[in-house]
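Hi L., both proteins are below.
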Amino acid sequence: MLRTATTLAFIAFALPAAAQSVSGTVTKIDRAQGKLTIDHGPIRNLEMDGMTMVFRAGEPAMLEGLMAGDRILFDAERVNGQITVIKLRKKG
C-alpha cells in the first residue's frame, strides 16, 4: 500500500502539469500575426503569475469574432517554444 502511494506521488510530481482554463480579458488582437494580448490570472501549468502578455493563437479561427474587451476562458501551453493558446471560449 505504501509503495503504491509513493509511486502515485512520484508520478503526480514528475509529469508536467496539464493545461487548465484561465480567465482573462482580451486587450488587443493582431490577426495578421495570429497573436492576441490577454490580461490574465495565474497560469499554473506554465508557472506564470497573472499579467498582461502576448500569446500566439493555436489556430487562426480562434481569433474570428473576438474583440478587445471580450472576457474569455483559455488554455495555454508551450508549443515549439512559444506560449500558445490551445483552447479559447468567450465567457457569458
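That was the first. Here is the second:
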Amino acid sequence: MEDNTNYFDVNKDTWNKKVAIHAQSEMYNMEAFKAGETSLMPYELRALGDVSGKSLLHLQCHFGQDTLSWSRMGAQCVGVDLSDEGVKLARELNQELNLDAEFVCCNVLDTSQHVTKTFDIVYTSYGTIGWLPDLKPWAKMISERLKVGGAFYIVEFHPILWMFDYVDGQPEMKYHYNQEDVIYDEYEGTYADQSSKMVSKEYGWNHGLSEVVNALIEAGLQVEYLNEYDESPYDVFPDLIQLENGMYKMKDQLFPMLFEIKALKV
C-alpha cells in the first residue's frame, strides 16, 4: 500500500492556513452564522430532514459551521477534520454558541481509531472525497460508524468538474475522470477568497461515481438513491451565473455540477 503521509501533511498545512482566511470570508459569513443563520444547503436539509435527537458524525467538517448547524437543529454531533486549526476554531464556536457538539482532529480515514461510538447519521459534503487516495477504507469506516438502520449521506461536486484544471482561469480538460495518480496543484488564493495571497499546495485524487457507489456497496451499505444536479450552491468555479433561487450554473451547462448519495446500513 502506498504511503500517502507526505501528501496528507502538505494538505493539512494548507488547510491550517485556510482556516483564518475562510473564517473572515464573505462565503462563510461568520457574522450571520453566529446570529443564527444555518450554513446548510437545501440538498442536505431535504435529504436528512428532522435530525432532532439523532446522533450525527460529520466527516471533514472544516471549522464546524455545518456540524454546529445540525447541532442547532437538535442533533448530537461529532465533527472530524484533519486541520487542528479548524478543530480549534470549531471548538471555540461551539462554546461561544453554547452548543454541545464535539470535535476530533484526525485524518478522516483514521476516524474509527478516535471515535468509537456509532451514529444514526454519517454526513459529508462539498469537496471532501477528492482528498482521499482510496475510497474503500473510507467506506469501511463509514459502515463501522453507522448504527444498523443508520443513514450515510454525501452531497459532493460532480467528478466531471475535477477533470479540468482551473488554475489559469480558463478551464482546461486535463485529468482522467477516474484518475488513480495523485494530482498536485499549487496556486495563490483559496476558493473562499481568491484575492488572498496565501499559497495553496494541494494533493488530490479523482473518483468517478462508480467508484463511490461500489465502495459503499462493498462496505455493506445499501444505496437508496444517487441523484445528479446541474446547480451548485457555491460560486467556486469560473464564470458561473447566479440563478433567482441563489444557486449557480454554468453558461453552457453540458454536465452536472453535483451528485448526492444516500445509503443505509441494513
